[in-house]
Design goal:
This protein is mainly alpha-helical and 138 residues long. It has helices at 2-21, 26-43, 48-67, 74-87, 89-112, 125-137. The chain has one domain (2-137). The protein contains 6 helices and no strands. The protein is globular. The relative contact order is 0.16.
C-alpha cells in the first residue's frame, strides 16, 4: 500500500511540473525508482520479471518518443518506465489505456469546444495521475 501512495505522490508532483513547465525533473523520478526497488526488496509484492516487463512497456513509449522526433515527450516515456517498475506489465498497460483514453477525450474537447489547434501540445502526466487514481479507487 505504501508503494501505491509513493507512486501516486510522484505522479502528482510530476503532473504539476508537466502542467507548469512542460517537463519533469528526472531526479525525482530516479529517487522514486530507487525507492520503488528498495520497497520491492522489503515487501516483495511482485517478481523481478514483472518489474522488468513493466519497465520495458514504458521504454517502448520512450522509443516512440525518439522515433516521432518528440511528438510524444521523452519525460512521458521515463514516467511510464517508473510506473511499470511499480505496477508491472499488465497494470502499466491498463494505466496507459486509461490515460490515453482520457487524454484523447480532453484533446477532442480542446479541438471541438475551445477551438484549439490540433498541433497544440497537452501535458500527459496529469492523465497518468488521473488514471492511476482511478485504478486505486477501483
Amino acid at each position: 500500500m505504501i508503494q501505491s501512495y509513493v507512486l501516486l505522490g510522484t505522479l502528482g508532483v510530476h503532473s504539476i511540473e508537466d502542467i507548469r513547465q512542460k517537463k519533469i525533473t528526472v531526479t525525482i523520478t530516479l529517487f522514486s525508482g530507487i525507492l520503488g526497488i528498495l520497497m520491492h526488496l522489503i515487501f516483495q509484492n511482485q517478481s523481478i520479471f514483472t518489474m522488468l516487463t513493466g519497465v520495458f512497456s514504458g521504454s517502448l513509449i520512450l522509443l516512440f518518443s525518439y522515433l516521432s522526433k518528440g511528438k510524444i515527450g521523452m519525460g512521458d516515456g521515463i514516467v511510464l518506465m517508473l510506473t511499470g517498475l511499480y505496477l508491472g506489465l499488465k497494470e502499466n498497460i491498463l494505466l496507459m489505456l486509461i490515460s490515453f483514453l482520457a487524454a484523447g477525450v480532453w484533446g477532442l474537447f480542446l479541438v471541438t469546444v475551445r477551438h484549439s489547434k490540433k498541433s497544440e501540445r497537452i501535458p500527459f502526466v496529469p492523465f497518468l495521475f488521473l488514471g492511476y487514481g482511478l485504478m486505486m479507487i477501483l
